[in-house]
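Work Package 4 report. The design task specified in the project plan requires that, given a folded chain encoded as structure tokens, an amino acid be chosen for each position. We show below one input record used in the internal validation round.
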């Protein structure tokens, strides 16, 4: 039942920039191409929930990251309306199992980026303030934002995590364990060119905007239900939140990498909303 629901919910929203495309079925398990995440390895990963009356439960709609004991960063497109009542949402933290029976956290405030219109137009970020701070525990820890002057290259070690689909056509099966996959970051110009060539897009409007970042390759990508979740890269032995899952054409297709909100661009905005981070 939950599975069906998850299917229905996770295909909502401005998720894909195009219509469904056939994806070769493969037997990889994953985010797409990933595997089970160890408990406590990604302690900032949270699940964003909305209440479903039919199933009488809080169901997963998106991922998110703790960036502070009281703040979660997610994608703006995960929030249905800018002025949504915060009590419509709950946060689940500290467990690799999606419906692991832990308590849910209340949200007291929602800040959608004021310039957000649609994921493919950028500004796809939202901040959620938790009603209470989460206590420090080994499996609940905020992730650090990237320093403003630092470039991420294909040489960096970067990972994606989420409870989203394992292929365009398959949702994550029970027991809904968090999935992880390592991905390569691409240069924006390269990614823009790939999208253009592969989609036959003509005209000079940039598709991959400066506040976006591309990562992934054929068979390694985020997919529906991963949105809002983290793309982290390791910088001098510490993980930095480099991207927020935003959009893509299909999932894990050749020449269509996943597109992320480039967190670095928004560090000043985030700090302004949240106040200084610890
Ligand atoms: N927008 C999707 C969601 O709401 C995520 C899409 C990511 N797509 C991709 N190919 N990386 O879950």
């Amino acid at each position: 039942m939950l599975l069906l629901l998850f299917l229905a919910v996770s295909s909502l929203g401005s998720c894909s920039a195009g219509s469904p495309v056939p994806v070769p079925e493969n037997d990889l398990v994953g985010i797409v191409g990933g595997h089970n995440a160890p408990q406590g390895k990604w302690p900032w990963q949270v699940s964003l929930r909305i209440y479903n009356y039919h199933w009488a439960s809080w169901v997963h709609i998106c991922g998110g990251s703790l960036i502070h004991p009281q703040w979660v960063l997610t994608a703006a497109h995960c929030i249905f309306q800018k002025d949504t009542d915060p009590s419509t949402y709950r946060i689940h933290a500290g467990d690799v199992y999606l419906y692991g029976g832990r308590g849910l956290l209340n949200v007291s405030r929602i800040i959608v980026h004021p310039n957000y219109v649609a994921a493919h137009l950028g500004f796809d970020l939202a901040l959620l303030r938790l009603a209470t701070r989460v206590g420090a525990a080994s499996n609940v820890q905020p992730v650090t934002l990237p320093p403003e002057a630092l470039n991420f290259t294909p040489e960096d070690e970067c990972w994606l995590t989420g409870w989203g689909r394992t292929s365009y056509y398959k949702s994550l099966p029970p027991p809904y364990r968090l999935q992880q996959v390592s991905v390569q970051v691409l240069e924006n110009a390269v990614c823009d060119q790939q999208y253009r060539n592969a989609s036959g897009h003509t005209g000079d409007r940039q598709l991959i905007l400066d506040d976006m970042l591309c990562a992934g390759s054929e068979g390694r990508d985020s997919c529906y239900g991963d949105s809002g979740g983290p793309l982290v890269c390791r910088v001098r032995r510490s993980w930095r939140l480099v991207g927020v899952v935003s959009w893509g054409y299909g999932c894990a297709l050749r020449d269509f990498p996943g597109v992320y909100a480039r967190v670095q661009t928004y560090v000043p905005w985030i700090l302004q909303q949240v106040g200084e981070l610890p």
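The mean pLDDT is 87. Validation will be extended to a larger panel in the next phase.
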